[in-house]
Amino acid sequence: MELRQLQYFVAVVEEANFTRAAARLHLAQPGVSAQIRQLERELGQPLLDRSGRSVTTTEVGESVLPLARAALAAVEEIRQTVDEFGGLLRGRVRVGLVSGASTRRFDLASLLADFHDAHPQVDMSLTEDTSERMLGALHDGTLDLAVIGLADEEPPAGLSCRIVVDEPLVAAVAPDDALLAAHADRTTVPLAALRDRPLISLPRGTGLRGVLERCCAQAGFRPRIAFEAAAPQVLARLAARGLGVAVVPALPADEAAAAGLRTLEITDARPRGRVALTWRTAGPAGPAARALLGRLRTSLPEPGARGPSPSGPRTGSTRPAAAGGHAHQAAGA
Which of 4, 47, 140, 184 is most buried, judged by most C-beta within 10 A? Predict the structure, then answer.
C-alpha cells in the first residue's frame, strides 16, 4: 500500500468522479484508476462503486475513508512540522465563496493573491457554491474556510464567523409598480404587502433566500418566488422591467435610480443580508489554513467600513453592525 494510492482514493471520493479527481491531481485518469484498482486488489475488497453516474464508496470504502484521510493528514503534519523549523509554510487550503460576495471593497481575490505571494508553497483552491452546501463542507472538512451568507441570527453549531457585510434588505421595484401607485413618495413597505406579489430572489440555499423565507414564515405566509438568479445584476434588471419585487440588500438612491428602480425599506421584519467569513470553531486542521484565517480576519473590512478593519477581528459574532455600502456587496448572501 502506498500513500499516493490513498491520496487518489480520497480524491475520487471527494470528486465522485475519476476524471475530475485526475484533473485535481494533475494526473492522467487511467493512471489514477489503475492505482486504485491495485489498492483494492491488495486489500481484497472493492472500495468504490463504479456502477452509477457518480462514483460512490462501498461499505468497505466508507469505513476505509476516514482512516485514509487520517493517514494522509499525519504525513502532511510531519512535513509541516519539519517545514516550520525551516520557516517554510506549505500545505493546502480550500476556500469557499458564495456567488456575488467578492467586490472591490470586499476583494477576496487580492487577499488570496497576497497570501500566495507570501507563501508560494501553499496550494490554494477556491470554489463558488451556495451557503447551505458550504456549511456542510465546513463541517465535513472538505472546506477549511468559507465566505457565506448567514440565514440565521447565530452561526450553526460548531462554526464561528466574522461578519464582513451587514446590510438591511429592501424591496426593489420599477417606478410604476403598484406598491408606489398610491403614494409616490413612499419609502417603506410592510412585509405583509409582499404576500401575493411575485418576488425575485437569490436561489434556495443562499443566506439571503433563507432570511427571506424565515421572515415570511414568521409573518404567516410563504413567499411567492417567481424568478431567481445567482447574479444580483439579473435580479435588478428583472425588477426594473416590472416582473416582480426584488428583495435585495439596500441600494444607494443614485444607484437605484440608475438601475431604473425604487427601493422601499421593509419596516416590520427588518431583514438583513449578512456575509461572513466562517470556519470550524476548533480551527482549521493545517497551519497553512490557520495562517490564512489569521490574515483574512485582520484584513477583511468591518461591516460598513471602506477599508481593512483598524481594530482587528470580531470572532464568533453575528450581531448586526452599522450598515452601509452598496447592495451588490452583500447580494451574494
Answer: 47
d(CA 171, CA 262): 8
Listed in order, strand segments (DSSP E) in the chain are: 48-49, 56-57, 91-98, 122-129, 145-150, 159-173, 188-189, 199-201, 225-228, 245-249, 262-266, 272-280
Q: Say which residue the cell 416582473 belongs to.
A: 243
Q: What is the pLDDT of residue 323?
A: 30
- Sort 293 into a burial class: Cβ within 10 Å, 0-12 / 13-18 / 19+: buried
Distance of CA 293 to the CA centre of its chain: 15
Burial of 165 (0-12, 13-18, 19+ CB in 10 A): buried
Domain range 167-272, its CATH number among 1.20.1260.10, 3.30.1660.10, 3.40.190.10, 3.40.1280.10 = 3.40.190.10
Backbone torsions φ then ψ of 279, nearest 5 degrees: -155, 165
Q: What is the mean pLDDT of each run of 10 residues along the chain (333 residues)?
A: 92 92 91 94 93 92 93 82 64 84 68 90 89 90 90 83 87 89 76 92 86 91 91 87 90 84 87 89 84 87 50 36 36 51
In single-letter form, the type of residue at position 6 comes to: L
Residue entry with cell 523549523: 85
Give the three-state DSSP class for 189.
Answer: strand
Question: Could you tell me where the DSSP H helices lie in 143-227?
Answer: 178-181, 207-218
Question: Do 91-165+273-329 and 167-272 fold alike per CATH?
Answer: yes
d(CA 272, CA 165): 10
Domain boundaries, the chain: 3-85, 91-165+273-329, 167-272
d(CA 208, CA 165): 12
Pairwise CA distance, residues 232 & 266, whole Å:
19
Alpha-carbon distance of 246 to 172, in angstroms, equals: 5
Predicted local confidence at residue 282, as pLDDT: 86
